[in-house]
Amino acid sequence: MNNPVFSSLLPVVVLIAIGYISGRAGWIRAEASKDLSNLVFMVLTPALLFRTMSTVHVEQLNFKPVAMYFVAAALLFSAMLLWQGATRRAAVLALAVTFSNTVMIGVPLVALAYGEAGLVTLFTLISVHALVLLTLATVVLELAVAREEAAAGQGSGRNMAMTVLAAVRNGIIHPVPLPIMVGLAFAQTGLVIPALLDKPLLLLSNAFGPIALVLVGVTLTQVRVGEHLRDALGLALIKNLAFPALVALLSWSLGLSGVSLSVMIVAASMPIGANVFLFSQRYQVAQELVTASVAVSTVLALLTVSLVMALLGAL
Questions:
Q1: Residue 17, exposed/middle/buried by CB under 10 A (0-12, 13-18, 19+)?
Q2: Where do the H-state alpha helices sit in the chain?
């Protein structure tokens, strides 16, 4: 249990297992999954994102160690879109191979392995992780939805400029990017959230991870993982191994090294974050594959994260 990888990942596996058992036992019915998904996406996620960003002061952050992480993420995201086509499915799968579980798994793991110095770098990444990747995915998804509507004759009256503007607007007025931007703007004022409001926001934020992972487990009862195991394993290997390898290669090619780089590589090796599952639910695309991929990626991470950290320690 002293192994940092095992102690960080085991609670995630247990929460998914609790959701699976609850679903199989009928304690949480399949019909309730949509309501739980809405609760997480529309209430818990905005609370978590706003509260996290409300204390981030941009001028105090050092983005240099984080830059190559997002360069690698952008390259991998774009490659997935080119490979799968610029569709809703492609956007969700692109998010799956680039969006890490940096909070629930990353924070305790980095704290145990790299201490306070590592956490400073990780928190810098976390402060912009959702802002960059979830906003990018939202805009791409909204553009894909607009194209599908136009192809179906529901939006044929719009020109491309109006379509892009509408997609960007929908991408901003959204339960994910909007609280991030509002929280970041609030932080720059120097004000502090009053305790009367901060306490319920904290409680909602703390509820996000457990409920989201339990929901993954509940949804697994409706998915035949065996039917999606090959594709789920492929996505998990890209996320858990190919993504950190790309971050490492790009960073080393520029001469970067040290604890900050190690933290970025380990963060990239984290399993697929639960937000990807919520996006697949909201946009009703690749839901079974993403659910299976989150589970496979999390279990596989017991081996792959250990491997990544062992290789870093040997270099």
A1: middle
A2: 4-25, 33-39, 45-53, 64-84, 88-96, 107-151, 160-172, 177-188, 195-220, 225-237, 243-253, 259-268, 274-282, 287-314
Q: What is the CATH number of the domain that holds 163?
A: 1.20.1530.20
Tell me: the pLDDT tens digits for 160-211?
566 566 656 665 666 766 787 788 889 888 888 999 999 999 999 888 878 8
Contacts of 292 (CB under 8 A, 6+ apart): 220, 223, 225, 228, 229, 231, 232
| Residue 315 domain-assigned (yes or no) | no
With 60 as the cut, is the pLDDT of residue 155 above it?
A: no
pTM to 2 decimal places: 0.72
Tell me how many domains the chain contains.
1
- Rounded to the nearest 10 degrees, the angle between the axes of helix 195-220 and helix 274-282 is 80
CA angle 271/276/281 to nearest 5° reads 140
